From TrEMBL:
It is found in: Cytoplasm. Signal peptide: none annotated. Its main location: cytoplasm. Pfam families: CSD, DUF1294. CDD domains: CSP_CDS (cd04458). Residues 2-67 form the CSD domain. This is Cold shock and DUF1294 domain-containing protein. It comes from Kangiella aquimarina. SUPFAM superfamilies: Nucleic acid-binding proteins.
Length: 202
């Protein structure tokens, strides 16, 4: 049975808020993951329909929520977009080929693999923490890991977990870290050319 209510409290940075049922009663907790439409961010005072459920601690929460004006999800919209995973695989492949060609040492290849694995696991932990209202990993930490070379792992986590894929500010900074890391990698590959050029300028 679906219930109608109004979002009376919403913290977009944390991805959760509370709904007050229109027919009266206690407020209901709702997390961003409960919304069917992930492309639209909830706002305070918006009307929402939802079903009641319980989290893993037995607390009442909302699920299968739809904001007013949202259409029913289509099957075609539920198909997974594999672009992020494809980019991550290409990145790993390029780094591996660079190592096999003797362009980079084993330590660089290991750095990308281990940092990506750690980043993926931290995304998993943060996703779980978001659902259970536990201590979250800061976005600065996630961006730092991406900057170190963990961005392929972050891309896979974003795709598989559907985590951190809707916040425009986060995505913008994330892709900046990818760009900076990629430029640094390209410079390292061409250090025999770049370094003498920089020294000649200085």
């Amino acid at each position: 049975m679906r219930t109608k209510g109004k979002i009376t409290t919403w913290d977009d940075s944390k991805g959760y808020g509370f709904i007050t049922p229109l027919q009266g009663g206690e407020r209901v907790f709702i997390h961003i993951s409960a919304f069917a439409n992930r492309n639209r961010r909830p706002q305070t005072n918006e009307i929402v329909t939802y079903q009641l459920s319980q989290d893993n601690k037995g607390r009442v929460c909302a699920t299968k929520a739809r904001l007013a004006g949202d259409s029913l999800p289509k099957r075609s919209q539920s198909k997974t977009n594999h672009i992020r995973v494809t980019v991550a695989i290409i990145a790993f492949g390029f780094v591996a080929l660079s190592f096999l060609a003797g362009k980079i040492p084993l330590s660089i290849l290991t750095l990308y693999v281990i940092t990506s694995l750690i980043t993926f696991l931290i995304y998993c932990k943060d996703k779980s923490a978001a659902k259970n209202k536990a201590w979250r990993t800061s976005e600065q930490s996630l961006h730092f890991l991406s900057l170190l070379g963990g961005w392929p792992g972050a891309l896979i986590a974003q795709e598989k977990l559907r985590h951190k894929t809707n916040k425009k500010a986060f995505k913008a900074i994330f892709w900046i870290t990818v760009f900076i890391n990629s430029i640094a990698y390209i410079v390292f590959l061409n250090k025999d050319i770049v370094l003498p050029y920089i020294q000649s300028i200085l």
